[in-house]
Amino acid sequence: MPADPAANLSKILESPSYRVAYKDVDFLGRSEMRAARIELEYLKPELYLQENGIRSTIVVFGSTRIIEPSDARRRLELAEKYLASAPSDRRRQRAVTQAKHLLERSHYYDAAREFARLVSAACQDPSLRGENVIITGGGPGIMEAANRGANDVAAKSVGLNIRLPHEQQPNPYITPELCFQFHYFAMRKLHFLLRAKALVAFPGGFGTFDELFDALTLRQTGRMQAIPIVLFGREYWRRAVDFQFLADQGTIADEDLNLIDYAETAVEAWEIIRKSEGRGIKD
Q1: Same domain, yes or no, for 247 and 139?
Q2: Among 1, 183, 205, 264, which is most exposed with the fewest C-beta within 10 angstroms?
Q3: Do both 75 and 160 map to the same domain?
Q4: Per-residue pLDDT tens over the stretch 156-170
């Protein structure tokens, strides 16, 4: 039986195939559209950053778990209280030990905030607006501290958030029109380094290592301009990664050790960066 024209027209108008492609979220979410989604994740931040006059950035990485000292102290008190109800519980003992270490490292939160404040304040001159803008992963911990430091002096800062299995909210100190949410780690990493004049890595875990070694590899292979890579906290980093051992074993060149600088204070880190002339990533 032939279709009723009126009923068929209604079905046509309601069919997913009739949606305008760029408005069809279901279509854009298909696996075959991955290339288009990757392009969009490049273009959207790029255009927003251009429109906001962001010409160069300073990247700050670090642990989400290194929090403000007062919060770290409260976290330790809670862990100790939890342990007190079951003193022989090894997991609770471990939690107290880790909370103590994180409290010991919590001064890095203040250092990251001071560093970002120092950089952002130095670049408030009209001739420097849009230069050396603080950019972070947009999450808590060290990232929050850096965005907060820029906010302390009413400066713009960027946050590149990413969708994770455990939902990550952006911290509240990012410039609203410069906070982006990514699905693809690759595009996020590209935007971290595209305008970077320096990278400062505070103590961190897998995420920090991933981003740090990505930058080191690009520098080592000449795919990136000679920006400084500053590891904040020599004692932590030298214990976490024995770069000298790698050179001694011949798995990296002795010259590769020159890719890394160490800093203990915000002023020291900023002085290292000021003496550099990095211009970002190569095409």
Answers
A1: yes
A2: 1
A3: no
A4: 999 999 988 775 789
Residue found by looking up tokens 């950089």 in the block: 119
State whether 96 and 112 are in the same domain: no
pLDDT digits (tens, 9 = 90+) for 27-36: 999 999 999 9
Task: Give domain status of residue 8, yes or no.
Answer: no
List the one residue out of 148, 137, 77, 76 whose CA is nearest residue 111: 148
pLDDT of 145 reads 98
With a cut of 50, which residues of the chain have pLDDT below it? 278-279
Q: What is the pTM of this model?
A: 0.92
Domain boundary among 80, 102, 124: 102
Residues 197 and 250 in one domain: yes
CATH (domain of 220): 3.40.50.450
pLDDT at 3: 81
Q: What is the pLDDT of residue 277?
A: 64
Contact in structure between 203 and 105 (CB atoms under 8 Å): yes
Q: Is residue 28 part of a domain?
A: no
Residues 111 and 98 in one domain: no
Range of the domain at 91: 71-102
